[in-house]
Specification:
- Helices cover about 65% and strands about 0% of the residues.
- By secondary structure, it is mainly α.
- The strands form two sheets. It has a two-stranded antiparallel ribbon with strand order 1-2. Strands 3-4 form a two-stranded antiparallel sheet.
- Helix 6 packs across helix 19 (about 655-685), helix 8 packs antiparallel against helix 9 and helix 9 runs antiparallel to helix 10.
- The longest helix is centred in the first third of the chain and has 36 residues, at about 75-110.
- The chain starts with 10 loop residues before the first helix and ends in a 6-residue tail after the last helix.
Length: about 850
């Protein structure tokens, strides 16, 4: 192949390269897309469909509340719409849309050709879509959830909620599973797949933000997933996590929910702020002022957001010292947000702003978010919150923060990147009208709610007494809601209309500074024929000379390789040339695997063993076929040859995406088991007796499980060190890989048997006391972790048996060793929670 910089690849090589990256056609285009732009577009379109459905629900509620004592909606219908509106906006619109935007933009911004695990990316999308379908199937079967989008126990428990709550929990679980998977993708693409030369201090603000947001999702969304499972177990098999009579506590749900819920506010706000950090400089024609301070503010906000959940629980009877601590923390986080606001204002002041539609939405964001931040400082104060907590003042506050902090930036971003997405410019005139309708309508809707709340109107009620004196305020809010909706409908019409009638844009109509504007508009399937080299924070504005080493990698990947999808893998700190990461092609199996999970949820809801059994077979078949296709593709063609004769296709350790994926999976497992252990500790602190009967106390079984896991780590690690870093290892190394995989599988299977045996041997009853329920949950979590370790070990065995690309089994065994290490940590936490914590004097 031709790699000379002056001549470049031949026409034939370019054609082969384009064919390798070609998108599927026909029905395959619907079910088999894996390319990040296709998946990101689907995320964003699906999220906006849910957004407009949730908006319609909000309008119906506003009609009911327009005048006192109306009966447009019954109390039951109002509660159902209220529950589904909040659920839709929080779980099906905000986070999925931002993850879709990140899936689309991050590879383009970073100079990569795709996300690191393209098939996993589309699997996450299907999980999200099917989770939303399950949630909205509740309207079809006439069992709509009505316990509020926060699902407080005991209202959502078995005593007061019917099967509708199970539908809510299963749909939510699939959507959260998708969010966690997307977070792992974002971390890997940001840390290890940046263009040559894009060191950490040159990364776009959006990339920095999504890295922090992804970490927040893993640390905050996993506890919600665990909490959902605990509630489902209480509802269906009689566990006692939230039953006070059996050692449980309803407040445990609030802790788990708000450990997720408060960081989620910043999971929505930070990406919105990052969009503003891109829109304002471009449309002000000036670099972002204070880049290092903005990055520091993002990181500090992400860290602090994880410790503020009690901000939502001031009225639950917590000790005054606790309230004082969280009041101070809740107020302090506003300083970091203020740093970003100052940076945007300074950029506007220093530049030459253009009042484009993206700039208008950005200015609307600034005004609205600052107003919401002011009321945020007010409700951060425990005494004030005690008075306003259950009033419409809080409704006004969080809509100012969420719509001001997330929706206005999203609309600014859509108008800003629409030429890149579609190659067409949306109408500036219609965009301006839509902005003013949305801006005026929003403030007319939500500003009066501050007053109605302060005047005593409680939230979460379907009507109110005429004597309260808030009828005019509510009428104004309802009128404003319809104006706001009209602005959003016009926004959608403007953007969609531009698809056919918009003026054609060039690659960079705004004169922007980041790498996505190098690609065509809309971008070609591989994004970049030749990987760009970065020499500054504003690659399109900086013209500094490039490093020859970086240019060499760029030349090696110039429309190459031609027979396999691949993109550069670079070092974490400095983005120096490293290896090549193989990118997966179109396949049907992620859709089938996600469909199997949805089928399993349906089987549990229908209480059908046949459906559940069939779903297990579908899931196993889909993942097996998925793995076989992976190994078949990785063992053929140019995947065995270094790109440009220099850059290996995969390498051990953090030089390949699989290692990062294994680390991500291990972290998720550890966060999950730590959440269960925290739950047991919380219950122990509040229970008069712990445990109610005897502790688990099976040292030999527990120690045996730990030793078997240690053997699995040792065997897989030993196998991963056998053989050279090449695709042609000696027979002894191949035999070592096989022995290591078989030994690890045996050790994992033994650990699984010993772990599961602890439950019947312990003689505990999960319905008797919350300690027993917690032991069941910990044993189940450990068993699930072991099964995941076994799955990855079997993949390494398949890799050894299916092809002669000798470095692949070595890499897979190392990934398995990483995951088994995480499983060992899960075992240690579970053992401490079942046997050590009950001995502690609390």
């Amino acid at each position: 192949m031709t790699t000379d910089q002056e001549t470049g690849p031949s026409a034939e090589e370019r054609a082969r390269f384009a064919q390798t990256w070609a998108r599927p056609s026909g029905w395959r285009r619907i079910l088999m897309p894996v390319q990040h732009k296709s998946v990101g577009t689907r995320y964003m379109v699906t999220a906006f469909v849910f957004f407009f459905v949730g908006g319609l629900q909000a309008l119906l509620m506003r009609v009911q509340l327009a005048q006192p004592e109306q009966d447009v909606l019954s109390p039951q219908t109002y509660n159902e719409l209220f529950t589904m509106h909040g659920t839709t906006m929080m779980f099906l619109f905000a986070v999925p849309f931002l993850e879709g935007l990140a899936a689309y933009l991050l590879p383009l911004m970073l100079g990569a050709r795709d996300m690191p695990f393209a098939r996993y990316n589309t699997f996450n999308y299907w999980c999200y879509l099917l989770g939303g379908i399950i949630l909205y199937s509740s309207f079809v079967v006439g069992m709509v959830p009505d316990a509020g989008w926060f699902a407080y126990v005991p209202l959502s428990g078995p005593e007061f909620a019917d099967k509708a709550m199970d539908i809510w929990l299963f749909g939510l679980a699939l959507a959260e599973l998708a969010a966690i998977g997307a977070a792992i993708e974002m971390i890997v693409v940001v840390l290890a797949m940046r263009a040559p030369g894009m060191s950490l201090d040159r990364m776009p603000i959006f990339a920095w933000t999504m890295l922090c947001v992804a970490a927040m999702i893993i640390l905050a969304f996993v506890p919600l997933l665990v909490g959902s499972l605990l509630l489902e177990l209480d509802r269906n098999i009689g566990t006692a996590f939230f039953d006070t009579e059996r050692g449980g506590d309803p407040l445990l749900w609030q802790h788990l929910f708000w450990i997720f819920g408060h960081p989620e506010v910043y999971v929505m706000f930070l990406p919105g702020a990052a969009i503003i950090s891109h829109v304002v400089p471009v449309h002000s024609r000036h670099r972002l002022v204070g880049y290092p301070f903005v990055v520091a503010a993002v990181v500090v906000t992400a860290i602090m957001s994880l410790g503020l959940w009690v901000h939502h629980m001031y009225t639950t009877g917590l000790p005054p010292v606790t309230l004082s601590f969280f009041t101070a923390a809740s107020m302090s986080i506003s300083v970091a947000s203020g740093v970003q606001v100052v940076a945007w204002i300074a950029t506007l002041w220093s530049g030459r702003p253009r009042l484009t539609v993206p700039m208008l939405f950005s200015l609307g964001f600034l005004f609205t978010f600052v107003a919401g931040g002011i009321t945020g400082v007010m409700v951060a104060s425990a005494p004030f919150d005690a008075q306003a907590h259950d009033t419409y003042f809080v409704v006004a506050h969080f809509h100012y923060v969420l719509i001001g902090g997330m929706l206005f930036p999203v609309l600014a971003g859509l108008f800003h990147w629409w030429p890149k997405f579609t190659g067409r410019m949306p109408s500036a005139r219609l965009g301006t009208v839509s902005f003013w309708l949305a801006f005026v309508g929003f403030h007319l809707t939500f500003f009066p709610m501050h007053l109605s709340g302060l005047w005593g109107m409680p939230r979460r009620v379907f009507t109110y007494d005429a004597g309260l004196g808030v009828g005019v305020l509510n009428l104004l809010s309802t009128i404003g809601a319809f104006i706001f909706a009209a602005g959003l409908v016009l926004t959608a019409a403007t953007l969609l209309g531009a698809l056919r009638r918009g003026e054609r844009s060039g690659a960079n109509p705004w004169g922007a500074d980041t790498l996505e504007w190098v690609a065509d508009s809309p971008p070609a399937a591989p994004n970049f024929g030749r990987i760009p080299v970065v020499t500054g924070r504003a690659p399109l504005w900086d013209r500094a000379p490039s490093d020859p080493e970086l240019e060499r990698m760029s030349a090696a990947f110039d429309h190459a390789p031609q027979n396999v999808r691949a993109t550069p893998f670079t070092t974490v700190l400095s983005a120096l040339p490293n290896t090549a990461a193989v990118q997966a092609g179109p396949t049907f199996w992620p859709f089938l695997a996600a469909g199997g999970l949805a089928m399993a949820a349906a089987g549990l809801l229908l209480e059908s063993g046949w459906v559940l059994g069939a779903s297990v077979l579908v899931i196993i078949a889909a993942f097996v076929a998925w793995e076989l296709q992976n190994e078949r593709e990785l063992g053929a063609g140019e995947s065995t040859e270094p790109v440009g004769g220099e850059y290996l296709v995969e390498a051990p350790g953090p030089l390949s995406p699989g290692w990062w994926g294994a680390v991500g999976a291990a972290v998720v497992l550890v966060v999950a088991v730590t959440t269960v252990a925290f739950s047991m500790l919380f219950l122990q602190v509040n229970a008069p007796v712990w445990p109610h009967g005897k502790a688990l106390g099976l040292p030999w079984l527990s120690a045996g499980t730990g030793l078997a896991l240690a053997l699995a780590i040792a065997a897989s690690w030993w196998g991963s060190r056998r053989g050279p870093l090449s695709h042609d290892a000696p027979p002894t190394a191949r035999g070592a890989h096989l022995v290591a995989a078989v030994t690890t599988t045996f050790a994992g299977a033994l650990a699984l048997v010993l772990a599961v045996a602890q439950w019947p041997a312990g003689g505990l009853d999960h319905t008797a006391h919350s300690y027993d329920s917690g032991v069941l949950m910990l044993v189940g979590t450990l068993a699930l972790a072991i099964l995941l370790g076994l799955g990855l070990t079997v993949c390494s065995l398949v890799a050894r048996l299916t092809h002669t690309r000798d470095i692949r089994p070595r890499i897979m065994l190392q990934n398995a060793a990483v995951l088994w290490t995480g499983v060992l940590v899960v075992w240690a936490v579970a053992w401490a929670a079942t046997d050590l914590m009950p001995l502690a004097v609390v």
